Inverse folding.
């Protein structure tokens, strides 16, 4: 496995933001058809990844422990936010 980098964690954050944003819009603002929600989540994630790739701040390597902890935090935030929006 390649050395973990902050960029890989940022990709996960971009995906989480896309999912949370689209789920919030779908649950609270406008009830979208599932295919539209999926396409919108992909588009928001794509924009986030493009931004991450243009920025040089995310190119630094981090330890495997930091990588694992940051990914765990991202997944927990995604899980909590998803169910908090639903209620």
């Amino acid at each position: 496995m390649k050395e973990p980098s902050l960029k890989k964690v940022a990709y996960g954050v971009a995906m989480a933001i896309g999912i949370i944003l689209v789920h919030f819009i779908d649950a609270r603002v406008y009830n979208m058809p599932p295919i539209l929600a999926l396409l919108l989540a992909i588009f928001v994630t794509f924009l986030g990844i493009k931004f991450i790739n243009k920025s040089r701040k995310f190119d630094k390597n981090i330890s495997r422990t930091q990588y694992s902890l940051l990914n765990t935090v991202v997944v927990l935030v995604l899980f909590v936010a998803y169910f908090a929006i639903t209620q």
About this structure: Residues 6-86 form one domain. The chain has three helices and no strands. The chain has one domain: 6-86.
